[in-house]
Amino acid sequence: MKQVIYPSLILLTLFSSTVNAVELSGNISLQSQAFFNDPLDPNQHNQYSSFAVQPELYQKSDNSRQSMTFIAFHRHDHNDEERSHSDIRELSWTGVYDGFEITAGISKVFWGVTETQHLVDIINQTDQVEGIDGEDKLGQPMIRFSTEQNWGVLDMFILPGFRERTFTGIEGRPRFEIAPGLNFNADTATYESDKEEKHIDYATRWLGIFDEIELGLSYFTGTSREPTMVLNGTTLSPHYLLIKQIGIDVQAIIEDWTWKLEAVSRKSSADNYIATTAGFEYTLYGIFGGDSDLGIVIEYLYDDRNELASSPFQNDITTALRLALNDTQSTEILLGLTTDLDDSVIASFIEASRRLGDSLKLTLEARAFNNTISSRPLHNFRQDNFVQADLAWYF
Amino acid sequence: MNIKISLASLLLITLQLNAFNALAETAEEKGLAIAVESDKRETGFTDSTAKMTMELRNKQGDTSVRHIRIKSLEVEGDGDKSMSIFDQPADVKGTAFLTFSHAQQADEQWLYLPSIKRVKRINSKNKSGPFMGSEFAYEDIASQEVEKYTYKYLRDETLNGIDCFVIERIPAYEHSGYTRQIGWINKAEYRPEQIVFYDRKNSLLKTLSYNGYQKYLGQYWRADQLSMVNHQTEKSTTLKWSDYKFKTGLTDTDFSRNSLKRAK
User: Fold this and answer.
1) What integer is the mean pLDDT of A146-154?
2) A138 Cβ neighbours under 8 A, 6+ residues apart
3) What is the pLDDT of residues B100-113, one digit of tens each?
4) According to the model, what pLDDT value does residue A1 have?
5) Which of A27, A325, A328, A355 to mutate to test the interface with B (most CBs of B within 10 A)?
6) pLDDT recorded at residue A373
7) Which domains are present in chain B?
8) What ipTM did this prediction achieve?
9) What is the enclosing helix (H) or strand (E) of B38?
10) How far is B27 from chain A (nearest CA, A)?
11) B chain contacts of residue A326, beta-carbon cutoff 8 Å
12) Which CATH number covers residue A64?
């Protein structure tokens, strides 16, 4: 990290000489989680509370052709010392030139179109202690070159400095089960590359827009964001392989339907596999004669490693309903069920959010795991049904 | 704007021909001629930027406020491009909408969600839905191209002391929330003073009033305040515009997928 932060700070200093006002924004949030069942490990708890701060500084100059962004993040968890963590989400400079733009520093990039899992999205590491849905990401050091032409948008990335995935600690929940007599240590991660976390990764993506069809093709070569687990004596540690991944993401809007497909082909020294997510979203606008929209999302998730898949979704269907009230408070409710077609495992979730007044936002989340079987990843969470409330103040 | 200019010249010829026989001009032709003239007077602004404050008021009179910055780019021969960037409420700060409006085809629209860095394509079917919980539907804030409606001149009428043409326009695009709109167009300036909207059941739905018109670049009229009152829910939304700037040098680069992500 260090080698990237210092040049960014120098850039920040140089940049400040052409000053515009620095804008400060961000949020502070309180979170409470309650688990319904007794934990698998007596070290774990039934209730957790934490707070998080995410301040953001933003400055633009040169008639908005240049900008600096700094977003810091810290969470303090009362029980889980691994979940108490800090991260620089962004510390980057972006310059816009005739026909291209460059971003240098720590930043965040999203690729993809599907709702349930994000297979092609590979630039940033998952900040897994923030949530098991994989939506939270750690800042990634990068140099990004992007050009937008009439043939599409081409992004090229040099990614120096690998970020290790975050894991909940011994007291944390939900977390994967550790067999009796073993222990887990995320700090002793090992790498296939002898350059370890200093291995430089490369990535590129082309996005073409053909009326109502958008097609993304991507390629990544470098250290996998997703670790395998290796046992050394009685200690389990993450091991990061070198991979090459080809990705495709397509979205087509055909009348009322939005069709979506993501697929990856990944090669490593351990295995080669193909995984895909495919489905649609159909939205009923103005239901019950009012302003609410009801979206129906159905996605099929496939991984050709079957039972050996590291992901819990190897032959699964997710059905979700998204209700947006389109009211002043931007009330939204998303509820869904993921069913494993091989094992009848059901994972269900509810996410709801509503603005309170002008600057508070309440988010509720609940997850449940039923009929899990011992050979599959979700079995780790069989006692971990929970509800979570998050109250955030935005400034 | 080539299409529109040729349409306008066609109309001009039609009007000249009609001068010999005024009775031959139908109400539809006169309605269209008014819309074409309004559009013609809007042509040539090149680009503009402005700030907008949106005040949402419910039946009980509680208000909530949004701050939005808007950039527009005139596109020759097609609908305009526009970008709306949210500054408030704070939880949606940095959220941006990019719209490519089209005269003939459906508009293209993308939404950028800064917290997850995701650009989402919006299904253009969603025209009648409320924009940010307000009384303005997406179709109300979209670029108003002549080809989006069919027109009919109804009558002349004085509105708040202003001589107006009253015209009816019926959406020619799919998925509109309206059967028809009645517009009061200022006879001298060809700018809208009021629009009344009728819902899908043809019941009175909303009234939009334009207030505080100011002239920019000696030619382009912009209202400082737009008030939309929903007669069915008794809710209202007021848009207050400020800091209008024209010909600021915006280009296609400012209305691209990449520009959405750095719009804040």
Assistant:
1) 94
2) A87, A89, A124, A125, A126, A127, A163, A166
3) 998 878 888 999 99
4) 42
5) A328
6) 79
7) 2-41 (no CATH), 42-261 (2.50.20.10)
8) 0.89
9) helix B27-42
10) 33
11) 129-130, 133
12) 2.40.160.10
A204: tokens are: 């590129």
Chain B residue with CA closest to A154: the answer is: B258
* B233 → chain A, closest CA residue: A290
CA distance A352 to chain B (A): 15
CB B80 within 8 A of CB B66: no
Assigned token pair, A336: 């869904």
Tens-digit pLDDT profile for residues B117-175? 999 998 877 888 898 889 999 899 888 889 999 999 999 999 999 999 999 999 998 88
Q: Is the pLDDT of residue A17 over 70?
A: no
Burial B110-124 (b: 16+ CB within 10 A, else e): bebebeebbbebbbb
Q: Are the beta carbons of A194 and A242 closer than 8 angstroms?
A: no
Structure tokens at B111: 């939404």
Tell me what the pLDDT averaged over chain A comes to: 91
Residue type, A83: R
**Paired tokens of A40:** 């698998």
Q: Is the peptide bond before A174 cis (omega within 30 degrees of 0)?
A: yes
Interface size A-B, in CB pairs within 8 Å, comes to 88
CB contact under 8 A, B177 and A286: yes
Reported as a pLDDT band with limits 50, 70 and 90, residue B15 is low
Angle CA A135–A136–A140, to nearest 5: 120
User: How many Cα atoms occupy the beta-carbon half-sphere of A218 within 13 Å?
Assistant: 29
Structural domain span for residue A159: 2-394
The answer to whether A392 contacts chain B (CB < 8 Å) is yes
Contact between B118 and A109 using a beta-carbon 8 Å cutoff = no
Contacts of A395 in chain B (CB under 8 A): 90
Domains in chain A, number: 1
Distance, CA of B111 to CA of B261 (rounded, Å): 10
Q: Binning pLDDT at 50, 70 and 90, where does residue A288 land?
A: confident
Q: Which residues of A touch B130 (CB under 8 A)?
A: 291, 326
Chain B residues within 8 Å of chain A (Cβ atoms)? 56, 58, 64-65, 88-93, 105, 108, 116-119, 121, 123-126, 128-130, 132-133, 175, 177, 253, 256-259, 262, 264
**φ, ψ of residue A129 in degrees (nearest 5):** -70, -20
pLDDT tens for each residue of B212-237: 999 999 999 999 999 999 999 999 99
